[in-house]
Amino acid sequence: MPDTGSSRIISLDAPSVLDLRNGQVEAIFAASVQDPDGVRQVTIYYDRPLATTLGSFSLQIIHGYSDDWTDGSHDYTTTVLPHNIAGPLNITHVVVEDNLGNQTTVTDQALRDLGVDTSITVRSVDPDTTAPVLTELVLPDTIDLRNGNAVAEFAASANDANEIGDVVIWFDRDLSYSFGTGGNPTFYEFGLSGLYGYGSDDWSDGRSSQELLFSSTNTTGTVDIDRVEVTDVYGNSRTYTNAELRSLGFDTSFDLIGASAPVPVTYVAELPDVITIREGQSLSVPLQFVGMTSHWVSYEYSVSAVGGTASASDIGASSGSGSLSVASTSPTTRSVAVPVSAIRDDFAEPTENAYLTVRLSGNMTFADGGTLRVIQINILDDNRTTGGTGNDTLYGTSAAEVLTGGRGNDHYHLTPGDRVVEQADEGNDTVSASFSHQLAANVENLILTGSANVNGIGNGLANSVTGNAGNNVLNGGLGADTLIGNAGNDSLFGGDGNDRLLGGFGFDRLFGGTGNDFVDGGLGADTLDGGAGNDTFLGGDGNDRLLGGLDADRLFGGSGNDFLDGGVGGDRLEGGAGNDTLAGGAGNDALFGGLGNDRLVGGAGKDQLAGGLGADQFVFTNRLDSGAGAAGRDVMTDFNRAQGDKIDLSAIDANLRLAGNQAFEFVGTDGFSGSAGELRYQQANGTTLIFADMDGDRRADFSIELSRQVILGENDFLL
Question: What Pfam families is this protein classified in (predicted)?
Answer without folding.
Answer: HemolysinCabind
